[in-house]
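Repro:
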Amino acid sequence: MVGYLRKELLGAALGDEPCDIVFRNADVFNPFSCTWELCDFGVKDGIVIGKGDYEGKEETDLGGAKVIPGLIEAHVHIESSLLTPAEYGRIILKCGVTTVIADPHEIANVCGKKGIEYMISEAGKTAADIFFMLPSCVPATAFDKAGAVLNADDLKELYDSYNVADRGEKSSSRGGIIGLGEMMNYPGVIGGDEEVFRKLGLCEIRDGHCPQLSGKALNAYVMQGIGSDHESTSYDEGYEKLNSGMHILIRDSTAEDGSGLISLVNPYTASRCMFATDDRHVDFLCSDGSIDDCMRNA
């Protein structure tokens, strides 16, 4: 996070004061160098402050056990699991997933702003970091008769109240809003719809949703600062979107298998590719897992 400062961690990082806990003899995967290293590392206030010979108030010998950074769920609709955010968090933590980017458009289509506020409140009841994207298309299309309508003014009110950037370091960031959720109304984007553009103007981070979009239409969509897509179903579609500057979310859900996109990932593209489950039922989560399952399948 740009501008992220934790002065209170200096003492522990320098070794001048004990960490809360030190893990010894851990076989740690370093994502920056893509290497494994047998080392000790310290944790203070829930944050890994570094590897090295630290002292801790508590110490645990892992005996060479493998340790990896927490996994990130890049895009999911928690409602599809049929779980509350708190219970969802309990399950995915067991899978090694510590951070979730959720789009609550399913509950928003039924309950509107109250549904989103409920999800944000419940997200604070889990140790997982659950961040939310503002549902951009409620209802999904103009032909739908949903339980609610969220226009740009409604979304602005939610963003002003819950965006992570304005909540400060002293409050928990769990449950905050970080951007605009998948813009499913790609015809509205390409056609210059005024209400769509008011929504796009609310957030700097904008998720996409543009199945089969290609050529100049894709160029027009991407030019509006929409940075990701999880709807590609073939290598060629994913490659074109990747080449257009989008981040590609390889979806492996209850209904979708993203194995055809794995070959897009190489040392040059890895920083722009990620896994997402989108929709996974609770039985699937319990039997197969979450992002950990995506990694095994890859």
